[in-house]
Design goal:
Structural class: alpha/beta
CATH class of the largest domain: Alpha Beta
Number of domains: 2
Radius of gyration: 22 Å
CATH superfamily of the largest domain: LarA, N-terminal domain
Helix content: 25-40%
CATH topology of the largest domain: Rossmann fold
Shape: globular
CATH architecture of the largest domain: 3-Layer(aba) Sandwich
């Protein structure tokens, strides 16, 4: 293991980007003639979820501006299913951690655990809505559109899910997560149509990010066009999604997991694991061992996704809020994702355990592996020297550093920043 060396590489992804997010929101809402659907004096709820979305405060502030320009009264409503512990205070804290507060947006930010039953789908599935949003005169559904980490279909993580699960709170989330994976997308669409038919939905705003976590697309839609827009933008989200440079790895070291990175802590589309009973695992990508080292502060102790790993550290487990993590996974029905893997004292012992489980002695040098910050930031990463030699022939890969061993201080991996190793104890 002392001879295993890593090389820093850079992946080159497509990079469309919106530079003026506020201006784009204003133009999009004008394009769909938003003012024609709202009357002076009406109260309009704007949804805000628990995900870390680039430029979200700018986007929400622009929507607040649009509503005020129509002489209506805007407020932001927490729409995050069971996140934040399913409580009003927990939701408010999650939003505040994302910069979504009354002070930053210039309007009220309301959170609640209570919901109203607003109807049911043709198949008898009930639809629920946050009480504050339902008591408003209208709702603007705003969310990022991206591939989901549990199911796939014509809609995944986006506006339909924001209505069914986000505004549905614990009841809505629990209901959706009891649906078989193959039927989730159609159920989300059915519940979304209940919202749209109610007349409460005034507009939808879809956001797509590129592989660099930049805002790539912002598009607004009138209620009747919302579903078509989401389906089209989901195709773009798949095209722009960050990926690992290869489909097979012996091991992957993930420096951090967290709810602000993915709903499952690690994006299952990146790591190729779902850990759901009755759902076959993907054959590509395939990673034999996954090691996770830490939990982000923005997760507030929610370590959902820890069960996707094979080995972790005591540091991560000590940061885990069991109550919040278990509520999230029980609500989703995916209890396997809260199960603890092998727990090692520190980073070094966790990585060594993974390598030892795959090969012995000098055979470790033949393993192909990678080290990433998280599954959201995949532009820069480190790969084993043997893998770097293969990747160096590709036009979408740039080798940007010499081979170097992993280095540790007091057992923990130390990086000068996200792209450079520093001197320390070698692996």
């Amino acid at each position: 293991m002392n001879h295993l060396r890593f090389v820093k590489i850079r992946q080159i992804f497509p990079r469309p980007v919106i530079k003026d997010t506020r201006g784009r929101v204003l133009r999009e809402m004008d394009r769909i003639n938003f003012r024609e659907r709202v009357k002076p004096g009406q109260r309009v709820a704007i949804t805000a979820g628990s995900r870390g979305i680039k430029n979200i405060t700018t986007i929400l502030s622009a929507l607040v501006e649009v509503v005020r320009a129509a002489k209506a009264e805007p407020f932001v409503v927490g729409a995050m299913g069971s996140h934040g512990g399913g409580t009003a205070q927990g939701q408010k804290e999650v939003l505040a951690s994302l910069g979504i507060t009354g002070e930053t947006l210039g309007c009220q930010v309301l959170t609640a655990a209570e919901v109203v039953e607003i109807g049911e789908t043709p198949r008898g599935v009930k639809a629920f809505c946050d009480v504050n949003a339902w008591n408003a005169d209208g709702i603007i559904i705003c969310n990022r559109i991206k591939p989901h980490t549990t199911f796939h279909g014509p809609v995944e993580s986006g506006l339909m899910k924001m209505m069914a699960v986000g505004l549905g709170k614990v009841k809505g989330a629990s209901l959706i997560h009891r649906v078989r994976p193959g039927e989730i997308a159609s159920t989300l669409i059915d519940i979304g149509q209940v919202f749209i038919r109610s007349g409460k939905v005034l507009a939808g705003v879809g956001i797509v990010e590129n592989s660099y976590d930049d805002t790539a697309i912002i598009e607004a839609a009138a209620p009747g066009e919302l579903l078509e827009m989401e389906q089209r933008l989901l195709t773009e989200a798949y095209r722009l999604m960050p990926r690992l440079p290869v489909d097979r790895l012996d091991f992957l070291i993930v420096r951090e997991i967290g709810k602000n990175i993915s709903g499952t802590g690690m994006d299952t589309n990146v790591i190729g694991r779902t850990r759901m009973i009755g759902v076959p695992e993907s054959s590509s990508p395939f990673i034999a061992r996954i090691v996770v080292l830490d939990l982000t502060a923005a997760s507030h102790g929610n370590a959902t996704g820890i069960g996707l790993a094979d080995i972790t550290t005591r540091r991560l487990v000590d940061k885990m809020d069991h109550k919040i993590t278990y509520l999230n996974c029980i609500t989703s029905g995916n209890v396997q994702r809260a199960m603890l893997p092998i727990v090692m004292p520190d980073d070094r012992s966790a990585i060594e355990a993974a390598l030892a489980s795959l090969a012995a002695g000098e055979a470790v040098e033949h393993l192909q592996g990678a080290l990433i910050k998280n599954t959201l930031e995949l532009e820069y990463l480190w790969v084993t020297e043997n893998l770097a030699r293969e990747l160096s022939q590709r036009t979408d890969i740039e080798v940007v550093g010499p081979p170097a061993p992993l280095v540790f201080r007091e057992g923990n991996l130390v990086l000068e920043d996200d792209h450079e190793f520093v001197q320390g104890e070698g692996l």
